[in-house]
Amino acid sequence: MPYSEEVEKKLSEKGVKPGDRIMLKRGKLIVEGILLPREEVDFGDGSVLVIKLDNGYNVGFRLDDGEIVKLEGSVELGKFKTLEKVEQDKALPPVSIFSTGGTISARIDYYTGGVSMLFTPEELFYNVPEVLEIAYLRRVERLFSLASEDMSPREWSTMARRVAESLAEGDAGVIILHGTDTMHYTSAALSFMLRGLNAPVVLIGSQRSSDRGSRDSDMNIICGLHAATKMNLGEVVVCMHAESGDTFNNVIRGTRVRKMHSTRRDAFKPVNSLPLARVWPDGRVEMVEKEFRPRSSEPPTVDDAFELKTALVKAYPGSNPEIIDFLVDKGYKGIVIEGTGMGHVPTEPLDRKLSWVGSVKRGIEEGVVIAMVTQCVFGRVNPYVYRNARIMVKLGVVYCEDMLSEVAYVKLGWLLGHGFDNETVKKLMLHNFAGEISKRSLYSTYQL
Amino acid sequence: MSSLKVGLEFHQRLAFHKLFCSCPSTSLGEASGKVVRRLRASLSELGELDPAALAEASRSRVFTYHVDDSFNCLVELDEEPPHPIDDEVLDAALEMALYFNMTVVDEARVMRKTVIDGSNTSGFQRTLLVALGNNDSVIETSEGPVRLKSLCLEEESAFIVESGREAAEYRLDRLGIPLVEIATEPDIKSPSQALEAAEEVGLALRMTGKVMRGLGTIRQDINISIEGGARQEIKGVQNLKLIPEIVEREALRQSSLIRLRDILRKRCSQRSFTYNPVDLTEVFRGTASKMISRALSKGDVVYGLKAPGFRGLLGMELQPGRRFGTELADYARVWGGLQGIIHTDELPGYGISEAEVNKVFEVLEASGDDAAVIVVGEPARVEAALRAVYRRMLQAFDGVPSETRRALEDGNTDYLRPLPGSARMYPETDIPPIPITAERLEKIRRALPKKPHEKVRELEEMGLSSHMAQQLVRSHYLTVFEKVLENTSLTPLTLASFLLNTLPYVRREGGREYGDEELIPLLRTFPSDLPREMIPDALKLFADKGMSLGEVYEELRRRKVGEDELRAEARKLVEENISYVREKGMGSVKMLMGRMMERFRGVAEGSTIYRILMEEVKRRLE
Q1: How far away is chain A from the Cα of B559, in angstroms, using its nearest Cα?
Q2: How many Å apart are CA A1 and CA A44, to the nearest integer?
Q3: Interhelix angle for B191-207 vs B466-474, to 10°?
């Protein structure tokens, strides 16, 4: 919390503001340093002064009846030095980089610890000078400064449009810097929205903040640029650490990737597929997947329709189908249910009120498209093995094969955005647009 | 040495699990896996790199971390944010701060201190300042008071297994162990006072009973300057006894550097010294120097730098066994990753002929008071090394540069990196500020540990001699003593005697330090029916052979010799020596006791043997 009114009053009486050098005398205590602000979201006590000592430590001392003396030597807080312009090699393959927010675009204020979204091309060049040898960064542009979870389909659409424009201008590939939490939703959305993609669109994020020496972002950017410039690929992919160590990155198809760990560098794993390729920071690219869409000459078209009244719902023991009723009542057009196992929801619980049959039936009757995926993450749904799934499929629920639930949500929203009739949407849910669905479940693709 | 100014910085490991996760702070296990990482330099708040960070970054090394589920989790691997600090470990730091009468902060804030030598997987060390010194927080020494400056709680770095030019390997078992760091003001004025202050602080910390003991669990950094010199931070002194020698030798080094400066200034000006490296590779083509010819055959190059006015100064001894040239070699090593340098004060030598030396002088256009520095290696490394050497030589005109140095075993030091600025520290954003309430401090204040002299008196009241009581308080076993005494059949005297007198022998035989987790349970449960002479065997069976305590005592009961057997043996011995017994009377018991002990040491109680012998001799004489 910020400074208390009482502290603010005493500070202004002395003409002291954050950034000023002060001395606090209180009883036996004499302490000198730069007064720091207290952030709105800061925990702790607003009557405690935060002071940066000359040895670098920040400490909190209660003002109480202490005396503040303003000293010479105040500093300007929150100011970043402007970096000198950097010359680029224009003979290298042209690439555009769009930053959208997230840890990879965030920057720390070393005084206060506050995080801000300040991303300039020069910062990239100074922090990761290797990029200057890989590509000509024709454009480094901040699209948004959004945390992963603040992304919405509207931003997916903006990204798709900017990517298409860049590729039309002749880029060899495009990089999108993105928060990691929902990166796999964006990668799926772009996979559907960019039709006829002619070059790699590479999403990159960072699991460690950029202030620290151990940040993964630099290697992700380096490997991502190699992927964007060297791969013969016309797909949207995620390029992140393959291992906890800084060894190599996986390039994973945008519709087959999922964040599988909240914190590890190698959080992104391919699901029901292999990575498309492996990339090393020294520029080596090794293709793993044989089937992929190669580069082509025509730039993509953007098909970014999206039905916002689309929802993703999880079934679990004791889950109440009222949630479906609520969505139907609210006018939702599509619902993806993350069922248990091969795609199950409660159909004959002892407490009849917890059966989903009635609500699902009503939803479909009222024109809502309901799709089923598995909450197991890995594997394929199958409506014919158990009775409760047979009931669902008979009601008209679409079973989405081996599609990831996040991908099914994005795909359903995208399809519904086109105004097709429900039967068409259901049919297209099972059509393979961007590698999101496959007929064969391969033994080697279950790797954890 | 009236102008000497010394400050100490203590790093004492605390006996708790790790500071920012719940991993144990002890580990003996092997690592089962390896993770390879690189650390990258960051733009700091000014858009500039800290000099110390830059020194490391310019080396771009690969770090391999040895990991194991038994001693590290994702936190040490920098794969998960830190967990909140446990109350009890913060309480221990607060207790130490109050014990030293320091002013505790009202809100502690965890900071990140940039460290990119690989010893922290994250690229920084987490640390929080807990208390500041005031006029009442002083360490008394016979040469005057030493004020305390600050007390911090921080995480220990990773243990270095191997360090090379391009790579280093670390184990993650040590990373994250809680440390208190206590810094003094530079009030220390002599080498002996430095030692005394260090001993006093160590003793005070042990009085809390919350510190780890054993090799490496406490280490000191020493800040030294002399008048006209500059502050040096000497890292990692583990042996307390070495402190006076290090202080003395550093004072000597600084005064030598001042003398060197004065000579240098008389000879030429700093401005006349420009960076103008010259390729000498051709000069040494076909040289008789094996070192150089071997390098040239690999495609290495030889470069030279004229050092105006440095003749005789490169070879000048700064400390016993270390010359100014050695300092320059440190810079070539740290910044260029080279083995060292060659300078003309030591030539002809190393197979380099006088003719070659003359040629070098000729090519470099050096004469008179000039000297030259020669480096050999890959072109990029040579460039980096020579630039660093040049910078260091420029500093010689100003006197003593501030550096971070490493303590060597003989009391000398060598160059590690530049002294870090405060830019290395910024907030740890993953841990909220920690409020420290007055109530919390009051509770701790009420239960502060006794002062050493009070503790000595308390031990004397338990029946320990004054000498033993003093010895115990100064030893590292006071905590073990007190913890065992809470619940044991051993008397305070037996216990103290074992810890002070017997344990050092056992330790030497076993070749290692025994941990609290080994000593305490054993000493607490040692049965009263077993002779205390069997404690060493019990410890070996328990700690070295891995037996459970139940198994240990069972085994010892098997080994223990009963009174019947002792009596039979005593009788036999008396009969065998009957004429001696008759002659000496009860005085014969002493010799007989020695014979009995030869046989029964460690398997029977000495006092029992003595009683039986007394009885048997008496019976026979009657």
Answers
A1: 53
A2: 7
A3: 90
Same-domain pairing of B125 and B232: yes
Q: Can you say how many angstroms the Cα of residue A150 is from the centroid of all Cα atoms in its chain?
A: 9
Do residues B503 and B468 both lie within one domain?
A: yes
Q: Measured between beta carbons, which residues in chain A are less than 8 angstroms from residue B424? A: 56
**Domain check: are B169 and B45 in the same one?**
yes
- Beta-sheet strand order (sheet of A310-314): A310-314, A334-339, A369-374, A398-399
User: What is the nearest CA distance from B25 to chain A, expressed in angstroms?
Assistant: 23
For the cut 70, the answer to whether the pLDDT of residue A42 exceeds it is no
Q: Would residue B411 count as lying in a domain?
A: no
| pLDDT, position B507 | 84
Tens of pLDDT, residue by residue over B23-34, are 999 877 889 999
Q: Which residues of A touch B172 (CB under 8 A)?
A: none
Tell me how far apart the 2 most distant CA atoms of chain A are, in Å.
80
Range of the domain at B576: 563-621
Interface test with B, best of A57, A108, A217, A247 (most B CBs within 10 A): A57
* Closest listed residue to residue A270, CA positions, set A294, A293, A288, A282: A288
B506 confidence band (pLDDT: 50, 70, 90): confident
Q: Considering only CA atoms, which of B536, B526, B511, B510 is closest in space to residue B603?
A: B536
pLDDT tens readout for residues A147-186:
999 999 999 999 999 999 999 999 999 999 999 999 999 9
CB-nearest partner of A56 from B103, B425, B432: B425
- Is any Cβ of chain A less than 8 angstroms from the Cβ of B423? yes
CB A180 within 8 A of CB A259: yes
Task: Name every chain B residue with its beta carbon within 8 A of the beta carbon of A130.
Answer: none
B433 vs chain A: nearest CA distance in angstroms? Answer: 6
Architecture (CATH level 2) of domain A5-71? Roll (2.30)
Measure in Å the smallest separation between the Cα of B334 and chain A Cα atoms. Answer: 19
Supply the pLDDT for residue B55. Answer: 56
Rounded CA-CA distance A258/A430 in Å is 20
Fold matches, A94-302 and A310-429? yes
Residue B475 included in any domain: yes
Decide if pLDDT at A355 tops 90.
yes
Lowest mean pLDDT among A354-363, A408-417, B507-516, B543-552: B507-516
What ipTM does this complex have?
Answer: 0.93
User: B424 and A108 in contact by Cβ < 8 A?
Assistant: no
Tell me whether residue B603 is in a domain.
yes
Residue A41 has pLDDT above 80, yes or no: no
How much is the pLDDT for B402? Answer: 92
Instruction: State whether residue B429 sits within 8 Å of chain A by CB.
Output: yes
What kind and span of H or E run contains B334? Answer: helix B324-336
* B250 and B367 part of one domain: no
* Planar angle of CA A197, A201, A202, nearest 5 degrees: 160
How many structural domains compose chain B?
4
CA B259 vs. chain centroid, Å, equals 32
Statement to judge: residues B211 and B302 lie in one domain: no
Chain B's closest residue to A124, CA to CA, is B43
pLDDT digits (tens, 9 = 90+) for B227-285: 999 999 999 898 889 999 999 999 999 999 999 999 999 999 988 899 999 999 999 99
Write down the domain spans for chain A: 5-71, 94-302, 310-429
Measured between beta carbons, the chain A residues lying within 8 angstroms of B74 are 263-264
- B127 CB neighbours in chain A (<8 A) are 57
Residue B212 falls inside a structural domain: yes
Picking from B540, B559, B578, the residue at the C-terminal end of a domain is B559
Report the CATH architecture of A94-302: 3-Layer(aba) Sandwich (3.40)
**Given this model, what pLDDT does residue B422 score?**
56
Secondary-structure class of domain A310-429 per CATH? alpha beta
Positions of A marked active-site: 103, 180-181, 259
**C-beta atoms of A45 and B78 within 8 A:** no
Instruction: Look over chain B and give the mean of its residue pLDDT values, rounded to a whole number.
Output: 90
B37 touches chain A (CB under 8 A): yes
